[in-house]
Amino acid sequence: MDLALTAAGVSIRAAAALSPRWGAAVAMPLFAHVQRPRPVHAEDEPTMLRARRRAVRIAGIDRRGVDVDTYEWGDGPRTVVLAHGWNGRASQFTVLVRELVAEGYRVVAFDAPAHGASGGHRTYLVDWLDVFAGLQQRHGAFDAMIGHSFGGLATLVAVAGGTDAARVATIAAPADADLLLSQFQAMLGYSGAVAQAMRERFASRYFPADPDPFAWLSSVRSPLPADVPLLVAHDHGDRVVPYAEAGRIMDAHPGSRLLATRGLGHNRILADDAVLDAVLEHVAATSPVPARLTSIDELSATSVAA
Description:
- 38% of the residues lie in helices and 16% in strands.
- The relative contact order is 0.12.
- The chain has helices at residues 3-18, 20-31, 45-49, 94-102, 125-139, 150-160, 177-188, 192-206, 244-252, 273-284, and strands at residues 52-58, 66-73, 79-83, 106-111, 144-148, 168-171, 230-235, 257-261, 294-297.
- Strands 1-2-4-3-5-6-7-8-9 form a 9-stranded mixed beta sheet, with helices on both faces.
């Protein structure tokens, strides 16, 4: 744990000694804080420079309005939307973008608020949902949505909530928002009482009119419609989102397909040949996958997971 996280944990625990609610009040801004945007890698720059850049205006986490940078490639009749994860950016998908465009798709990606080239300093899942709504208004129904990590959870939540997408693929995605809160608690070392106060503060802050937002911020409690085929890709050695999350998603979606890999970790999985092939096959399919679980295990690299 770095010094900043250590100091944050100390501050939260000191406030919690007075009251769990005070501890939660100190922790809450940190939960929505985003690190400095990761750079665009040199090998990704040519693809990003070829994108048609636009923007979607959303309310943002503070409901004051924020412009989200969007990127479009190709001009095919079928639209595929790509959603990056927390501390990610659209450029992480460049290998997949090139593959999809070569197959004749229109590909749309974005940098969420406080990520990549977009403005802002804080964000949460509601912003991904608002971006999806803006892109749907612009492009109409999506032929597929593909989400990585936190973006995978956002994609599952969006389509379960009514976003019109014919197919969904998740890569290294958590099953629900509860995991994120639990990981945050473990990282900063605050008590169960503070964790409960955090859940209450989170719900009242972002979803004031909803008595139980965790019911729909979950692919387990609120799964996709039965007619939306799902591909779940996850690496056994993922150190960011545990592999067990793939099982939770699969259990909630009978008939979905699992691509289990080894040696790719949380990010390298995005550019792996076996994963790219499976995603392209899933997106191109014209009929639902069979109503059975298909596990494709240990197809990928054998290097140590990141």
